[in-house]
Amino acid sequence: MGTFSVTVDVVNPLDPTKHATLDCLVDSGATYSILPTPVLEQLGIRPLREDTFKVATGERRTWRMGGVELRVDGRSGWSMAVFGPVEAVPVLGAHGLEALGLGIDPVHRRLIPVAPLAL
Q: What does the alpha-carbon distance between residue 112 and residue 55 come to, in Å, rounded to a whole number?
């Protein structure tokens, strides 16, 4: 499929005046979006829980998670985000994509609107 990035506005849902714009790698294989801890802290995002994640190397890491509003191409949605390491590349994961109602067009390396399912 190849990789690509998109511009994402990350917003504190409790105080929309606090926001940051990040270039995020689109990764539908990541359950949640992963954002650098300093960015989330600067926005005033409070951790809601911790969870243990399996990373690409097979190791397990425990990270905090909090709720954010994501905005991409005029769409917005609330999603959980991981307080990632400082050096982590920001990632827009599957949960964020679903919250935004967006899917991946792998041929053109872009995001496209998708109809939600209610089965």
A: 27
For 74, the token pair is: 């005029």
Which of 26 and 55 is assigned the larger pLDDT?
26
SS3 52: strand
Question: How many beta carbons lie within 10 A of that of residue 118, not counting itself?
Answer: 4
- pLDDT tens by residue, 37-73: 999 999 999 999 999 999 889 999 999 999 999 999 9
Could you tell me the two tokens for 45?
């995002």
What is d(CA 68, CA 75) in angstroms, rounded to the nearest whole number?
Answer: 14
Contact yes or no for 70/26 (Cβ under 8 A) = no
**Gap between the Cα atoms of 60 and 39, Å rounded:** 23
* Structure tokens that stand for 102 in this block: 């967006």
Indicate the pTM of the whole model: 0.93
Residue 58: HSE in the Cβ half-sphere, 13 Å Cα cutoff? 0
Residue range 5-30: average pLDDT? Answer: 97
